[in-house]
Every structure is written in structure tokens, then in C-alpha cells.
Give the backbone structure.
Amino acid sequence: MKPLTSLGARRSATSAHPLRLFVLSGILTVLLTRAFLALAGYPKLGGKDPDATVHISHMLWGGLLMAASQVALLGLTGRRARIGASTVGGVGFGLFIDQVGKQVSNEGYLYAPAAGLIYLSFAVLVAIAWRADDGTGPAEGTGAATTRTAQAAELVLHGVGDGLTTAERARAQRLLRGATGDTDRALLRALDTLPTREPRPSAWHDARDAVGRRFAGAAGRAGVVRAAVVLALVMGFLRLGRLAAGGLDGPAAEREWNALVAALACATVTWGLYVYGARTLRRDRATAFRALRAGILIDLLPGQVLNFTIHQFSAVQDLAVDVLLLGIVTAELQRISGRPAPGAAAPAVVPAAPPPPLKLTSTLRGDATDVPAR
């Protein structure tokens, strides 16, 4: 498989925020759509008559919204257009993937494995968005110099209309550092002509940062960490028991028997990692929390796909617990390694008290002299 650089493609310098907006809007769309349809009795636009010749599926509206977002991305430029297109495209994808059950089975909208397929789709998108370029460093590897130039040009283009923040300007300069090409020198000159844009105050961003700081502070407390370990053990044990009881139900569970067996095996591995982490906690905290994190990640990926397949969207509760546990365990691992957790405030620097003066005794006079320490 050829690398993207050989095909003329380069990693974007500003892809993280639009991708995360796309994923978030898609997830919210699926959850809200499912909740509304369940409360409304699954109405059909065009009539409930099974013999009716017209039925407008909301998958069609999703396709239209995704087409609109593509037109905006291909035909417009600018930061706001990209953010708006990402949000509209996410809503469209949510409406589209919500009806995957009708496309893969004759059982229709409520086809049981559809929930697992929807979750798997968004799990892949979350992984892509998580790995997206968030501006933490320049590109490396094959074609790195050209990629850095392309990313700097992208930042310059975004700054033509709205200006650049101090952080964006510093990143563009870092991308062009040490470059000697004519294009790079032209981009550096263009950076000097762009106006400075101060970040707009946003209640949403302030609230998000405040929640992040509070979560990071709470996750670092010993009582919260111990409670997270206990919760992981209890939830893992209850899930094992629920899956085992489902396997004993007989014919009622036969439809998803393969998923049930696979989920039971996955839950057993997860539970084993939780138990190992709890037993290792006193001897080696880093190893213990790495085992706990591995168990949570196994449960989030294959485990929750199977869980959604078996229990449909009632599995959202288990997913929320897993995400909470992952946040606490990750914050504790970062604390153990000495790295600040995301959203945590920088530790206050307390000036050290000056050391007491040293007593130096003169061998000639025999008296003691106070000499300030340096």
C-alpha cells in the first residue's frame, strides 16, 4: 500500500477540531433520533400503511446533509465554513448510520446487531479523531519537509480571513523553522502581514475547561482512585454474571448466541485484568493501572460492540461507566509518570526557603563565623 505522500495527500494541520465535531454531532444525532422515535412510537414520514408507495426514510435526509457538507468543504474556504460543514456532515452521518439495520437485514430498523454496527462505526471514527493532528508538533517521516510546508500554508490560508492567534502563528513559524525553500520564505513573509486574532471568549469553552480541571483534580484524589478500582471490579463481575445468566436463558438468547459467547470470553479477559491490577496495586502502581487501562480498552472496543449487539442501546450506561473509569485511570497513570493530566492546572511554584547560614570555624582564631549560603 502506497503512503499518502506518494499520492499527493498531506496530513492537515487543523483536522483535530473538525473531526471531533463530526464525531460528536454524529453520536448525539443517533442518540436523540433513537430516543425521539422510541417516545413517538416509530412514526413514518409518508404514512404507517405498509402498502403505501411513499416512505421517506431519515437515511435520505442524512445523505442530503452529508452531500451539503461535501459541497461546502469543496466549494468554500475558511475556518467557520469548515466547522459548520463538519457539524452538518456529522448530523448527516448520524441519520445515515442509524438505519443500517434496514440495509443489512430483513428485520428492519430494530435489527439487533445494528446497535453494535453503529457503535463500531463511531469507535473507528473516535480512534481516527483521537489520532488527528492537534498541533503538538511538526510532521515527521517520509515527505516531512513538504508536509510541514503544506501545513504552514494551510495555517496562513486560515489566517487570511480571520487572522491568526498567537499560538497558531507560533506553530506556523515552528513548522517553517530551518526551511530554506522559496515557498517557505514566502510563507514566513506572509505570516508577518497577517493580523493577530485574539481567541473569542466562549462560555462553552470556559465551561469545558472548568469541567476538565475539576475532573482532573477529583481524579487525583486517593479516595476517587480507590473507588474507581472497586467500581471496575464490581462492574466486571456483574457483567460476567449477567452474560452467564443470559446464556442460561435458553431459546430467548439463541438469536445472538455467537455474540453472547464472544462477549462472555471478552468479559472474562477484562475481569482477569481488573483482578490482576487490584492484586498488583500495592507492589507496583504503574503496572496495576496499566493492566486496568488495558482491561477498560478491551471492554470499550470488542466488549462494547458485543454488548450493544446483545443489549441494544441500553448498553449506553455501561459505556458511560467505562469512559469514566478510563478517564480516572489515565489521569492516575499520567500522575505516576509525572505528566500533568489534560485540563489540570499547573502546580503552583512555591519558592524554597533560603538555607540556614553555614558555620565556618577559623582555624587561626578559633571563633565561628556565619557565612550566607550561596
Remarks:
- The chain has a mean pLDDT of 80.
- The radius of gyration is 28 Å.
